[in-house]
Design brief:
The chain is mostly helical and 309 residues long. It has one domain (73-308): MetI-like (MetI-like fold), CATH 1.10.3720.10. It is 74% helix and 0% strand. The chain contains 13 helices and no strands. Helix 3 crosses helix 7 (170-196) and helix 5 runs parallel beside helix 11. The two termini are 48 Å apart. This is Multiple sugar transport system permease protein.
Length: 309
């Protein structure tokens, strides 16, 4: 049998609908091409060349930039792996706190009356709207060893000044503290929205069965918000891997090189040493590491969920 042809008016409406849908997608597509796809392709191209801004010729060298990074005798090797180590430290220190404190704050705000909840939610979210440079200036003003507000109060109380930004472990504590204050509001809002989606009937059923508040949290709240929890963990990990502004502006990578994260080394290599080829290779390797970690987190979460089911 021959397929029935659509009336001309209906076919025209379908074409118009598809074109309208395409127009809605077009802005995102253009932004994706301009700010993600094209830079990614160009970054791969640069990483395969001896791309020095001071030279008029950028010869193709294949994977030599990558080989240089993995050569133990190369300065690029220590720059990459020491920076990566410091970045991983920051991720390990910050991500659990951002997730746990964000969830705890969301649970706390959900337990107070509506008007107060809106007020405190706004207060905690405001720092997220501030730029990293302003956040760093605020914490420099608070934590400076000689003239910082916190040390002034400590000395007034008879304590010695603490080198918050110039000695370890205080430098890491300062960076993590500033990051939590700055970004905690985002995770809190995400968790509040997730908690509001938990069916109230589940809590009522748990109360009838005699479940305690802790049992409700473990057996009802956490399983229900698991997808949101995974989203927060992955986004917090990616954001922490991309840390740059806080150590660059607050500690300058010090004391020594102990807080010089990988992005600081890449930026220095690209724009001060002008070695864009190796810097692009490092940036691509860093992106690959983030993708692998995100996939592992996703697989672990799905495996645990499958095991529980």
């Amino acid at each position: 049998m021959k397929e029935a042809k659509l009336p001309a008016s209906k076919a025209k409406k379908e074409r118009l609908s598809k074109f309208t849908s395409f127009l809605f997608v077009l802005p995102y597509l253009l932004l994706f091409l301009a700010f993600l796809f094209i830079p990614l392709v160009y970054g791969i191209y640069i990483s395969l060349h001896d791309y020095n801004l001071l030279s008029s010729v950028q010869p193709f060298i294949g994977f030599e930039n990558y080989a240089t990074i993995f050569n133990p005798d190369s300065a690029m090797n220590s720059l990459f792996f020491e920076g990566l180590g410091n970045t991983v430290k920051f991720v390990i220190f910050s991500v659990p706190l951002l997730v746990v404190i964000g969830l705890g704050l969301a649970l706390l705000l959900n337990s107070i009356p509506g008007k107060l909840r809106t007020f405190f939610r706004t207060i905690y979210f405001i720092p997220y709207a501030i730029s990293v440079s302003v956040v760093s200036i605020i914490f420099l003003w608070i934590l400076d060893t000689n003239s910082g507000l916190l040390n002034m109060y400590l000395m007034d109380l008879g304590f010695d000044a603490i080198p918050w930004l110039t000695k370890q472990p205080f430098a890491w504590i300062s960076l993590i503290g500033a990051t939590i204050w700055w970004t905690l509001g985002f995770n809190m809002i995400i968790f509040i929205n997730a908690l509001n989606e938990v069916p109230e009937e589940l809590y009522e059923a748990g109360a009838i069965d005699g479940a305690s508040a802790w049992q409700k949290f473990i057996h009802i709240t956490l399983p229900t918000i698991r997808p949101i929890m995974l989203f927060v963990i992955i986004t917090s990990t990616i954001a922490s891997f991309n840390v740059f502004g806080q150590p660059y502006l607050m500690t300058r990578g010090g004391p020594g090189d102990s807080t010089e994260v990988l992005l600081m080394g890449i930026v220095n290599l690209a724009f001060e040493e002008r070695e864009l080829g190796v810097a692009s290779a490092m940036a691509l390797l860093m992106s690959l590491i983030m993708i692998v970690i995100s996939v592992i987190q996703f697989k672990i979460a799905n495996y645990k969920q499958g095991g529980e089911n």
